[in-house]
Amino acid sequence: MNHLFEFLLRQGDNVLVLGHRTSEWCGVAPALEEDIALANTALDLIGQTQLWLGYAAEVEGAGRSANDLAYQRDVYDFRNLLMLEVPNDDFGRTLMRQFLFDAFQVPWLTALLQSDDQQVADIAAKSLKEALYHLDRSSETVIMLGDGTEHSNARMQAALNYLFPYAGEMFADDATDIAMDDSGVAPLPSAMRAAWTQTVEKVLGEACLTLPDTAFAHSGGRTGFRHTEHLGHMLATMQTLQRSYPGATW
Amino acid sequence: MSKEWPLWEVFIRGQHGMSHRHVGSLHAVDAEHAIKNARDVYTRRNEGVSIWVVMAKDIAASSPSDKGPLYEPARDKVYRHPTFYDIPEDVGKM
Known about the structure:
Chain A is mainly α and 250 residues long.
């Protein structure tokens, strides 16, 4: 197995899948301001995808492009976290997911600045500026809604209860992570747990939300072993054009 | 109680702008939220380097019906424009 290729797919697929989910709000978000903010976030994430998958394609060396990887792979070839592929459901879950992911991305991309692989360090540097703003915004919104009305608090708590069992997958090291750590490309994801927990506990505390008392973690997304039923439906929408008209450009 | 977020007026200073200019308005729950929304709504095309927001209700405005007494007296006082003087070249931009 080409561990660097695998590692890059994980980075790219995370932001691709979350970017697509976020883009589903375009035109239907609860407020015009949030609609534009979510579209901006989605565009940031798709931009990051182009960099990660572009480098992945280069490393693979099989003549595929970033677009081929994004639009012509099927469910079992995707390496994103399960948390990022589950449906948006409501605005609360969308914001909570963004927050739980941002709280990981910021320390993760910060650590990747030190990567021995210069291209990884460069992509991290560009992505980090965006991730810092995303974290700022998602934390603030989670606090506003959690510490809002009884109704908004209940919906944010429901979102947290639903998503929390998916969060543990972010920190589950495997052979690829160990190979990346050994070669100086990236630290182990498990090393991010302390920083993530600190951010999450602080923000959720301010948001008057309670962390579910469970250590259970779904897995299978980042290894590609088992995705949820939702990813296939999402890809059917996301990939329809390239599937119907392979190679179409504009 | 209104469920609508309060209205804010947004002022942006551009890359080469000397002062903040009014660019529009938006809704937000508080000042910090308004600045973030302004960033997302009004600076997506690299328009600004600084943002001011102020609650629309906090702006005191002159009344359009007072137009006559407020502005008309200035109309016939052309001598208030410094157009009757020659400004030396080396004074620069006034």
